[in-house]
Each structure stands twice: as C-alpha cells, then as structure tokens.
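Sanity check. The docking grid for protoporphyrin IX containing FE depends on where the pocket ends up, so I'm generating a full predicted complex first rather than guessing from homology. Inputs follow.
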Amino acid sequence: MQTFRYAVPQVAVHWLAALAVVFLLVTGTFVLADLPNDAGKLGNLAIHMAIGALAGFLVIVRVVLRRRLPAAPAAPSDKLAHAGHMALNLAVLLMAASGMVLALQSGVFDALFGGGALPADFKDFTPRKVHGLVSRLVMAFVALHVLAALYHQLIVKDGLIARMTFGKK
Ligand code: HEM
Ligand code: HEM
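Predicted complex below; grid placement will be based on this.
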C-alpha cells in the first residue's frame, strides 16, 4: 500500500532541522556577523556552533532515514523535488563543514575552552567567505522550497504539506 505521509521520525527531524537552519540563518546574519570579536561574542558563537553542528548531523540522519525506511513516500515527489531536497541537504552540509573548518583554522575552540583570543576578523579566513556565500545559497533554496510547498498546497491542491505532518497514514 502506498504511504501518504513521511514516517514519524522523518517528520520530527524535518521540522527540528528547519527550525535550526532558519535560526542559524537569521541570527548568523543579523547578530553574529555584526558583533565585534571580543569576549562578549563567545556565548553567541558557542550557541551558533552547537546548533550548526546539530543541523549538519540532522542532514545525515535524514539521508539515513530516507534510505532505511521502506515506506519512504514516492508520490507526488518527482525528479525536480528530489533534486531540490538534495540541493538543500548538500548546502546545509557545506555550511556545517565550512563552519567547522573556520572554527578550527581561526582558533575559536582555543578561545572557547583554552582562554585564547578570537581572531581580529573572521573575514580574513577563506572558509568564512565560503560560509557567507553558501549561507545566501541556503536562503535562496529555503525560499524556493517553501514557495514550492505553498504552490502544491494552494494551487495544485494536492495536500502536500500534510505529508510532512504527524497523523494517520
Ligand atoms: C519552513 C517551511 C518549510 C516547509 C513548509 C516545508 C515543507 C516540506 C514538505 C511539504 C516536504 C515534503 C515534500 C514531498 O513530499 O516531496 C518537505 C521535504 C523536505 N524538506 Fe522541507 N519545509 C520547510 C523548511 C525546510 C528547511 C528549512 C529545510 C532545510 C533543512 C528543509 C528540508 C527538506 C528536505 C531535505 C526534504 C525532503 C524530505 C526528507 O528527505 O526528509 N525544509 N518540506
Ligand atoms: C547549517 C549550519 C550553519 C548555518 C546555516 C550557518 C549560518 C551562518 C550565517 C548566516 C553566518 C553569517 C554569514 C554572513 O552574514 O556573512 C554565519 C557565520 C559564522 N558561522 Fe555559521 N552556520 C552554520 C554552521 C556553523 C558551524 C557548525 C560553525 C562552527 C563550528 C559555524 C561558525 C560560524 C562562524 C565562526 C561565523 C562567523 C561569524 C562572524 O563573521 O563574526 N557555523 N553562519
């Protein structure tokens, strides 16, 4: 029998990841990037890095669940939707990876745990440029993803959003 909805763990992971990514995009752009690199930034950085690592980890969980669960829904996802989801996953992974490399290169861990100082400006590091550019890509992908969901919901009227909610099969 065709299952209409994603499985419960997939729905839970989707919305937790969505929350994390939107939080990171907004606070990264409007809070973190504007703060001077003094000791007052450390708490914000720690939160950003922990949630960023979680977001990267959830991509891996999502891909594993998608492959493991026999009831992964087929319709109405098509090739374009699949490509879009892969693009989202890849871009978020790239954010987590570039963030991690940036933190290692610029001595953030030493500042957090060893009493070292933060670099004068993260923008002096190449991974920061990658992180900043890819964040704009993630924003564009998320916007397209939400528009696509709304298009299905309101114009095609196929009840697509219900697939990503808890409920009877
Ligand atoms: C906030 C608004 C969002 C809405 C309304 C939404 C809605 C949906 C819906 C309805 C599906 C199922 C599509 C289908 O059946 O083919 C889906 C799947 C998916 N969404 Fe979202 N989404 C949102 C945010 C996000 C964000 C921020 C991300 C990025 C992390 C994301 C990543 C994904 C992925 C990767 C899938 C594929 C399913 C999977 O592999 O688990 N979504 N979304
Ligand atoms: C999916 C995960 C992540 C997202 C969506 C994200 C998002 C962002 C955004 C939007 C910015 C500001 C970029 C700009 O305005 O140019 C930023 C900056 C930054 N992020 Fe992330 N990030 C993620 C993961 C991480 C991780 C895992 C780390 C470290 C372990 C990290 C470390 C940093 C650092 C050090 C900055 C620089 C802050 C500054 O320039 O003052 N990020 N991030």
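Relevant for the grid: The chain has five helices and no strands.
Also worth noting: The pocket of protoporphyrin IX containing FE (ligand 1) is lined by residues 10, 14, 17-18, 21-22, 62, 66, 77, 81, 85, 88-89, 92, 142, 145-146, 149, 160-161, 163-164 (CB under 6 Å).
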